[in-house]
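Quick entry between incubations.
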Amino acid sequence: MGRGHDAQPILNKVPSFVLNPENVYEKIVEKKTLANEFLNDFLKKINNYHGDSSRSVLNILITLYDYWIPKGIGLGISRSIILSKGHASPALYTLLALNKEIDYDELDTFATPNSRLQSHPEGGKIPGILFSTGSLGQGLSIANGIAYAAKLNNENKEIAVILGDGELDEGQIWESISTSYSLKIDNILAIVDRNGFQLSGPTEEIKIKESIKKKFEAFGWYTVEVKNDIKELMIALDLVSEIKGLPRALIVKSG
Amino acid sequence: MVKMNLNYSYRESLGKALVKIGEKKKEVVVVDSDVSKSTYTKYFAEKFPNRFVSVGISEQDLIGFSAGLALGGKIPIAVAFSMFLMRAWEQIRNTIARDKLNVKIIGTHSGLSDFLDGSSHQALEDISLIRILPNFTVVAPSDIVSTEKLVYEMVDHIGPVYMRIGRDNSPKIYDDQEEFKIGKSKTLIEGDDILIISYGPMVEISREVVNLLRKKGFSSSLIDLYSIKPFDEQNVIKLAYKSNLIAIIEEHNVNGGVGDMISSFLSSRLPRKVVKIGIEDSFGTSARNYLELIEFFKLTPKNIEERLKVIYDEL
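Done. Structure below.
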């Protein structure tokens, strides 16, 4: 059937191929250490606003920005990132500051009325933020539309959309997961930040999520589970880049 | 039973207009939630299969997907029953309105037009829900000609637009040459005593109300307020100024509808009595035909004429 059931989970496996000639991995790890410090300083100033969600998404964001996007440029693919779980904005803003997309001092304006740095990122205010988020469950539908428009326009474009595991409670997620497969949107990549927590506590105590991988697979997606680790993420991103004809998902497990 | 000529098809007019705009504008993509046979977007689907997308029975996804198409440079037109589009009100607000995306939303089967399906299907709240959203334009054509012309107009307009139409309950009011602009209105009749403001199929009922009032010695004006947001403030104030009574007649809940909008507009400008005529804070109900519902909700020309006469005499 080609429905992704033969996707091999690479969780806990030793990376089996050489990553990069230019020490990209080492550079990203180094940046991650710095980003972690910056994020923790920032979170202290903003009363730990969605701190846990921001910390768990940091590896994902760094790997996408510093590995997946540049690699796409090399391949002639224009790649964009959507943070559907917009409440993890402190991580996003920290990285944008590190990448000099915004001034580091601007972080001090976070969540003030005239700031570009709204609590939940707003479209058009900051480079790279395609649309406003804040309401959960909507990112994948919108990403599907962007990816589909790119196909209609014959543009070589890929969209990565980062979803929270708690966010999967939203019904619209399952509407859009079904749409991706039905419309053969294979230029989309859903990344689930499987940190195991949602607002009120552990996810499985609030609404059972498992098996997220089996659910995505049942909806026709090529799905891979990985540890929340930069090296595993890089390997997984390379792996799913080879998959054509199916929407692809990475379930990124913390702990 | 009351006799009115409300037998033309809004949705057929829509279906044909979408094909015409599809021929002219290659960026137009029609997005459907498995109602293309009912909304007549099937015409577009047959003509342009590559620019027609069905996301299945998923209205929230319909709106999100359309938002994405707009971000990708397309002009998406999401067409579904008005009632079930309201299921995606939060998506409409948080994505399309907030980001001012160039998405066109067309709600069919609005008001009482889906008479047989009953209260679950009869959208009597949609104007209220959408007009309060910043950045949104709202239009409600009264007949098949204005439906076609406003489809072209909404596609030319940059930004979010909601169009409200009925099913097969359209009157024939305008000639094919008539033009319609967002923010404008049509003065169909001009008089002195009473100003009637209406939109959608109720414009035809209002024309009959004016005729009946004339027989009782009242001279009335009638505005077809096909553009609800923005609306033609100048024309409303001009005709309201010379009238003693203003009535808004709509196929919508009187709470939050155009009646409320006009009352609130006039309250700070003109001391005039305003009467809101529509569905009195209730849901719809099943019926075997449209006019049966018009009678049930006391919206026949005779009902309205009698009500207005009593109010006018008490002024």
